[in-house]
Amino acid sequence: MNPLPLIVGALGPIFALILLGLGLRRSGFPGDGFWPAAERLTYFILFPALLVQRLALARLGDYAVGPVAAVIVAMLLGMTALVYWLRPWLKVDGPAFTSVYQGVIRFNTYVGLAVALAMFHAEGGTVAALVMAIMIPLINVLCVLVLNVHAGGSATVARIARGLATNPLIVACLTGIGLNLSGVGLPWGSAAVLEILARAALPLGLLAVGAGLRLEGLRRPGLLAAASGLKLLVLPALAAGLCWVAQPGRLETAVLVTFAALPGASTAYILARQLGGDAPLIAAIVTVETAAALATLPAVLVWVV
Fold first, then answer.
1. What's the pLDDT score for residue 155?
2. Which fold has domain 4-209+222-304?
């Protein structure tokens, strides 16, 4: 069976919404003030509701959490070592190096969960939530540390810990897992409320992804190509190799490799501005990666499926 029509059919609506968001933002509709508010609503309310709902009702014992965590840690540390090894060839200053690093190891959670649900259905969404629960804290710690060392960031240990403790996605993942393991589940009719909120999360989140893309700053094609190649081609290959060693299971492997092939996220731009990174460069990297993922993500999924 040729999986390509299935993959194109699953990814088509996702990228259509991203392009629609880009078009709406460029046309000025419904106004510049709408998109920051929409992104905040999705980030703090809708997306956490989806994660709590998925994790609270999942049968967590069915998934290989230990091997998944081992693959994620090895993958992120391996790519960190590779980017540092390549730094002399990149010929960039400290702030630019931090942006390349963020472009390589960060991923877009909205796109990732949408792809997992479209390709692997409800169980894929649950595994994706588990992957996010492990991956997001580690990525945030690594990125803040790299920005502190190479861009003169001012984040302290206390600030990093506070940022992790108040990150709505991390809080939502821990809440969902806690409700699951305690046997409480989703009490007092909360399941119906979370279901309604969850339905709005991905459409609005994907539109916000498109609206957040920046078409300016695309002036360093060699560096953009290097960062995008590491993110969209090398990282999925590394994830597949680690999964072959750790044997986390077929569904877990598919979701892990899919997440490794995702483009970067606009949160990297915000962090770069806060901690002294090269914000225009990371904005350009995320834009190029999102455009390139139109071709690379289907190719990786054909390989996975």
1. 67
2. Na+/H+ antiporter like fold (1.20.1530)
